[in-house]
Specification:
The structure holds 2 protein chains of 2 kinds.
Chain A: H1 18-31, H2 33-48, H3 56-77, H4 81-105, H5 113-118, H6 123-152, H7 163-187, H8 191-205, H9 221-224, H10 227-239, H11 246-277
Chain B: E1 3-14, H1 22-35, E2 43-57, E3 62-66, H2 73-80, E4 88-94, E5 97-100, H3 113-123, H4 128-142, H5 157-168, E6 175-179, H6 187-203, E7 206-210, H7 214-220, E8 223-228, E9 231-236, H8 238-259, H9 264-267, E10 271-275
Parallel strand pairs in B: 3-7, 3-8, 5-6, 6-7
Antiparallel strand pairs in B: 1-2, 1-4, 2-10, 8-9
Helix pairs in contact in B: 3-4, 3-5, 4-5
The chains are: A mainly alpha, B alpha/beta.
Chain lengths: ~280, ~280
């Protein structure tokens, strides 16, 4: 039968094949590009409706933040605005994506409760829709960066091409984070609040507003030990025309593999319970 | 050949109140682990919605589900649909399941009628190609003509029902699950709708319908199951089981008249504390 497999996870003897169902959920969910891209676009279109600028309002507020604070901090710390502004902007655009993914990740199954209880739908598909929606916003925000680059005269190099694998890896990490948060926050509703708090702190602890070489003495390991720093770096550095170090690629690759392994483990163990938690 | 087999299927719904959350899980762990108070570790109030249900649904069965509110009809359908996996027991489904519990899963009132047809049909498991092929026929059945290009928020509630109904009934179900039939709008539309549902049922190999309407069950089903407190009380030919149910209701009414409100408790779902796996 010709069917979209995303929604038709086979159901043969549920008890024994829970692991199989969970794996199919993940694989079929990712494969159902036509559905999750559609759901993601629909959310974006909704934000455009009856407003002139739509999602660009997020972009505008980010632009205002980056410009005013960027110029202020460049002055305070004695940075050259032409190097600091691109750095800050690239960092903030990436961080915005990361924090939006984490914030929305926790509720991505909860808000789709009706859908989940009416259809046999792949949860991973809903996770992908969440990522996709925020990726679209990211590409709205990237316009600020382009404008800043024109002002600062940042040049495009071969390393800029590394943005593509970097961004894909970044999103792959986003996916397991959203998947895990979605499962955990559906069961324990408090976690969502906790995530918000942690995100706020991490933004200041991760080199986004400041550069790692500003850290002095023993504090210098604060950047290197922070996985978020490496995750940010593989997208931000190519944007700035710098190639991330092989070390950073390896670290992120390792995080991706471990993260996905954990996600798949959790799905195998708890996928069948998630709907009962809603 | 489509077939569904349920073996000792039990579905327990854990009850998460406002208070049961991370705190309790943490406390439970600390208290249970360190101070060893077994009473707080795993015992949780659960509602047993299905209790040890075993049954085979064969090719060609048009199965009606009857029973009081809370007898487990909806849960039974959702277990068949694979939305809930049984807490205990197993279910084997041979064939493609199409649950139609609500006429428009995934309907977005901001989207146009055409966009909604595409999204909902994709979610119902149709392929893009199949939808494009069926689009003219679906559009014609809604009788919405030019309205289909407008956002669904401009539709009257009757028009929304027609849209959802046309999409839902366009599927070619192998195993069709219906909850309370499908609402159909105004009287003229209702007769066309009835024909369309009949045609859809004829295309299916197995149909399961939960309903409170004896008339509907009599019309559509060749086998009926009477559920009570999550258990199968009777299973047999339509007229036999329906007569038994009517008889039972009469007796219960008489019983109630004599013994007063005490019997009402039995009408509600059986709530029993059991150890739940969470």
């Amino acid at each position: 039968m010709q069917r979209v497999i995303a929604l038709n996870i086979p159901q043969h003897s549920a008890q024994r094949s829970r692991a199989r169902i969970a794996l199919i959920d993940v694989l079929a969910g990712i494969q159902a590009v036509n559905i999750w891209s559609r759901l993601g676009w629909r959310d974006t279109k909704r934000r455009y409706r009856r407003t002139v600028f739509g999602p660009f309002w997020t972009t505008a507020s980010l632009a205002l933040f980056v410009l005013t604070l960027g110029l202020l901090w460049a002055n305070l710390w004695g940075h050259d605005p032409k190097t600091y502004l691109p750095y800050l902007t690239a960092g903030m655009v990436c961080w915005n994506l990361f924090s939006a993914i984490c914030t929305e990740g926790g509720s991505c199954l909860i808000v789709q409760e009706t859908l989940i209880k009416q259809l046999r739908i792949s949860y991973t598909l809903l996770v992908c829709a969440t990522i996709w929606r925020n990726v679209i916003v990211f590409f709205h925000n990237i316009i600020i960066y382009v404008l800043v680059c024109i002002y600062a005269g940042t040049s495009v190099t071969w390393a800029t091409l590394l943005f593509i694998p970097g961004f894909i890896l970044f999103c792959a990490n986003g996916a397991w984070i959203v998947g895990l948060l979605a499962a955990v926050c559906t069961r324990y509703r408090d976690i969502q609040q906790l995530v918000g708090t942690l995100l706020q702190i991490s933004m200041f602890l991760t080199p986004i507003l400041w550069t790692p070489d500003q850290l002095k003495g023993r504090m210098a390991i604060l950047a290197d030990l922070n996985p978020l720093y490496h995750l940010m770096a593989i997208v931000r550095d190519p944007l700035l025309g710098i190639a991330p170090s092989p070390m950073q690629w390896l670290v992120v690759l390792a995080i991706t593999i471990v993260g996905w392994a954990v996600l798949i483990r959790v799905m195998i163990k708890f996928r069948h319970r998630i709907v009962y938690w809603l | 050949m489509a077939e569904i087999t349920l073996k000792n299927v039990t579905a327990d719904f854990p009850i998460y109140g406002n208070q049961v959350s991370l705190r309790n899980a943490l406390l439970g762990r600390v208290v249970g682990g360190v101070l060893r108070q077994p009473s707080t570790t795993g015992n949780r109030v659960v509602v047993r919605a299905l209790d040890n249900v075993s049954l085979t649904i064969n090719h060609g069965d048009q199965l009606g589900l009857i029973g009081h509110n809370g007898a487990g009809k909806s849960t039974f359908l959702r277990v068949l649909a694979g939305i809930y996996e049984p807490s205990i027991g197993s279910i084997t489904v041979d064939g493609h399941v199409s649950p139609l519990f609500n006429v428009s899963p995934g309907l977005d009132i901001d989207d146009s009628g055409y966009d909604n047809i595409m999204t909902c049909a994709l979610l119902l498991g149709m392929s893009r190609h199949e939808i494009e092929r069926k689009m003219p026929e679906i559009a014609a059945f809604t009788e919405l003509s030019d309205y289909l290009a407008l956002p669904a928020r401009t539709y009257s509630s009757g028009m929304l029902v027609r849209l959802g109904f046309a999409i839902a009934t366009a599927i070619d179900p192998e195993i069709l699950l219906l909850d309370e039939g499908l609402g159909a709008g105004d009287a003229r539309f209702a007769s066309r709708a009835a024909k369309r549902v009949e045609a859809m049922i004829e295309r299916s190999s197995i149909m399961v319908l939960a309903s409170h309407s004896d008339e509907l069950i009599r019309q559509m089903c060749n086998r009926v199951i009477l559920l009570d407190h999550g258990r199968i009380l009777a299973d047999g030919p339509t007229t036999e089981v329906l007569d038994m149910y009517t008889h039972m209701n009469k007796e219960e009414l008489l019983g109630k008249a004599q013994s007063g409100p005490t019997n009402q408790a039995a009408d509600q779902m059986a709530v029993q504390p059991t150890t739940a796996t969470v």
